[in-house]
Write a structure and sequence with these properties.
The chain has one domain. The chain has 7 helices and no strands.
Length: about 200
């Protein structure tokens, strides 16, 4: 009787190890796994945040002095650097998860929770950054003159404020959709796979 119980326990242990190994292979697959998709999204974000400010400076080389003195441009550059740093640290977490040979359930759940929390921070951070940008759009024309901002300030104040609120609402919904598509679905899949682990 004890021998049968021991055999059953050993078979259950072997099937659990096999199941966990199969789940780990799904998670860590180099081309289609959720970790690969997350890494790809973070790499794209880093590349985009490096290219866009450089492109803005490049297309304005004829007026480089004014561009380099632009408060709004420097604010945007600082914002892009912040996004690059944020994405890099998230990329490192995913890389560590990918490199672990024996990623246990508790550790996987913890890493996924950290990434989910950071995605919430990102959404809040982008919203705060946009509010600061709106404040700059309202304040900067009193110190520096930009043709486009002067035209914007010729529009009535109520229309500008309604536009800002509409822009923030639009950004919130689009950001939520993009984050869910780029990161959320993969994090959810990782959570489901973690729940299947023994």
């Amino acid at each position: 009787m004890e021998l049968d119980e021991l055999k059953q326990t050993w078979q259950d242990t072997q099937s659990t190890k096999s199941l966990n190994t199969n789940i780990m292979e799904l998670i860590q697959h180099k081309s289609y796994g959720p970790l690969a998709a997350l890494k790809k999204s973070f790499r794209k974000q880093i590349a985009l945040m490096m290219i866009v400010p450089a492109y803005v400076v490049m297309i304005n080389t004829h007026d480089l002095q004014n561009v380099l003195n632009s408060v709004i441009l420097w604010y945007y550059v600082v914002f892009c650097i912040g996004v690059i740093i944020f994405s890099y640290y998230n990329y490192r977490i995913v890389s560590k998860m990918e490199g672990m040979d024996n990623l246990v359930k508790a550790n996987l759940e913890k890493q996924v929770e950290i990434l989910e929390t950071r995605m919430k921070w990102k959404r809040t951070g982008v919203l705060i950054a946009l509010v600061i940008l709106i404040l700059l759009l309202e304040i900067v024309p009193y110190f520096q003159h930009y043709r486009m901002l002067d035209k914007w300030h010729s529009v009535s104040t109520s229309i500008r404020y309604v536009s800002y609120v509409g822009f923030l609402a639009f950004q919130y919904f689009v950001s939520t959709w993009v984050n869910k598509r780029r990161y959320g679905q993969h994090l959810q899949y990782l959570k489901e796979l973690a729940n299947e682990m023994q």
